[in-house]
Write a structure and sequence with these properties.
The protein has 567 residues and is an alpha+beta fold. Helices cover 30% and strands 22% of the residues. The protein has 17 helices and 21 strands. Strands 16-17-13-15-14-19-20-18-21 form a nine-stranded mixed beta sheet. A hairpin with a 4-residue loop joins strand 9 and strand 10. The N terminus is likely disordered.
Amino acid sequence: MDRSPNNFPSPDGWSRRGFLRSAAALAAVPVLLAADPAVAAAELPGFPAEVAAYRSAYRNWVGEITADGLWACAPADAGQVLAVVDWAWRNGRRVRARGSAHGWSPLTITEGTGADDPVLLVDTSTHLTGLSLESGSAVRAGTGVTLEALLTFLEDHGLGLTAAPAPGDLTLGGALAIDAHGTAVPADGEEPLPGRTYGSLSNLVLSLTAVVWDESAGAYVLRTFRRDEADCAALLTHLGRALVTEVVLRVGANSSLRCVSRTDVPAAELFAAPGSGGRTLDGFLRRSGRVEAIWFAFTEYPWLKEWSVAPARPLTSRHVTSPYNYPFSDNVPTVVADLVGRMTSDAAWYLAPVLGNAQLDAAALGLTATLSSDIWGPSKNTLLYIRPTTLRVGANGYAVLTERADVQRVVHEFTSFYRERLTAYAASGRFPVNGSVEIRVTGLDEASDVGMAGAQVPLLSAVRPREGADTAVWLDVLTLPGTPHAETFLRELEEFLFKRFEGTRVEWSKGWGYTEDAVWSDEEVLGTTIPASFGNPVWDTAVETLDRLDPHRVFGNGFLDGMLVRR
């Protein structure tokens, strides 16, 4: 098929220097600077002697939120975490838990935070990584463990999850704080397995241990909350307004999954209006229950991934024994690197259509060259497919809660609006998107999935159940940081979603609240639209609980202070 764009110059011979400079900055590991004990003692008087303090940089996923020289520490266990929090409270410091920093929104650190600000990073990923089986259907995990380590541990014991986020480097604590998700709903005729959920990872929690304020003791303490306790509902998706050290998750028997990738279904067919016939997203969803569409900007053929439960290896599938089976995606191809370098260093943003088609060609050719178009193996090996070496782009995110029967309608109306606006922008010489649209579909956080009487529903999960809905359509738009007109374009998409679909909520870790030139800034969205999407009583209950468990706001930052208030 011919995917070449018309009337755009060839990328041959372009320099990669701009891209490489950007990639090096974004991929840099935070520098840890050991502090002179005398300096630490002077600047952090009374800091727990058993915990080493050091200076550290913070970088979010795309490097748009950065901070240098922050005080940090890596407590060895929950007791040391408590000692650090107690010190922070008594010394006017704010504690920010840091895992892999694989996120976009200012829930951990806000832009402009500096070395002189009273902020202390608490690294969970160094020591809070314990894993043990509680029973054949539950696992106890430290919140600093990565999802790859968790899924590997489960696999070794014949256990697994229905779905998971694609990046294996996410820490469990970070994933739970923002109700991270994969893509899965029951296929036609599929019976859900015990110990599984089609909602977010937050819905798997049976109990959690957090540092909270104890009014009678007049101090912060470690307390374990069962899933059937009312206060647990606010902690299941706490957005960084709490610090959880350990969780117990319900899990189930592992499954082998087949993942078939294809790039031969046109967007016009895949995202067609309901009732159009042909190879629609809904048709794949009914057949397998597990799909993802990656639609590169200014292209016609999405990269469609379809997972299906397959106890035995299908004849045409390649058996994979490890995750990350799309090296062409994790390691940026030269032609893509050249294009990104030209766009970012020379402001050649008009090359977005060329970049979109180059990314699609790289995917189509890469799937064939690496024999990755049809793979099969234990669930972890097909669910995890994004490494930190992938191209780092900004992302917005929303979940549209709807009825399963209306999934195709939601996808059709959104993609039609997106295509129309992108075409209109391009016609006026503006190219606000140079990445892709990503579409996933999940179930909701049904409390009955955990098998505990009285289990609470996560209060602030984007897939908290709402009347008239049983499914969530996740919609993300990705574009390079600094792309001109991106905020204006994404603001239009956001306004469309909130006006067109009553069940729209934001995806906490990504971009939302757009003004004409900024993100996480629209006062109407932050102060009214988002709380109303959960229902103001639910929102207020969550805020009141988090405030009561941390009345001194040790866990928080300026952004959360302004957003998480009663409405």
